[in-house]
Write a structure and sequence with these properties.
3-stranded antiparallel sheet, Rossmann fold, 8-stranded mixed sheet, 11 helices, single chain, 11 strands, alpha/beta
Amino acid sequence: MGSDGQPRLTVDLGRLRLVDAGSSPIAVREWGDPAGRPLLFLHGLGPVNSSAFLSLAVAPLVDAGFRVVGVDLPGFGGSPAVVGDAYDVSRLGVLVWAVVQACRLERPVVVGHSWGAVIACHVAAARPDQVSALVLADAGHRNPDEPLDTPLEEIVRGAEGVRLRAADRAEVAASFEVPPEEALVDVVLAALVDDGSGGLISSATGEVLATARSHAMRARPSHTWPVIASAMLPTLALLATVPDEARAANEVDGGRFAAAVPQAEVVLVEGASHQMITDLRVGFGTLVADWLGRTLP
């Protein structure tokens, strides 16, 4: 317990700060030696997602000498929301490049999970000569399903209902069916704010979740593949195998991606669901660190 009677953190959440990304301030978390080789992480889309999720997997990357910078995308974690078309995936890619410049990251490795992987494709395709390698965690290797035709207002109402609400740390732990001292609880708490009544609620609002999802469904990562392929950018796609339907879909989609991006290494990761960072923890970091060690000069 800490001196205030609250449980101590059980995971290193990194050094959190705001950077000036031009159109919007953006919160970033940093781990490792500031002089290390830069690696940029983009998180997935969900009510409790933020760059803090990489805390579960970051140790092998730090041990391998990387300076790891995780981005809280707009409206998530510590970053203020943007509005409307600012959630267009290509525009988010421009925002990420502003973060890269603000953090002075020279030719970073770009790692994205889920929504973050789709954005990572656009980041890499915009400036392939300024990226050292691309790692996609269970997204970016396929196009989304057809865009939603549901009115945005209805999507917002539904998204507002999935925001996590909890009285305290213990209730957060109970909602994930883990002990209160579990590292996952610290990661989730990093994406919660005071609800104004003494409780906690996801910092990502229903409007943010719905708008980001609506734009993500319109994104076509396949439009970026020819650029990534022609640049011969080293690329790793880590794909889920749980449940069986995910394995079957990823076998097909991973094959298409490998044909379109011939230099890509496509790996079906045993025991990993779409939430592979949560599933694998340091194992995810080890997979990425080992591949980068074999791939980068």
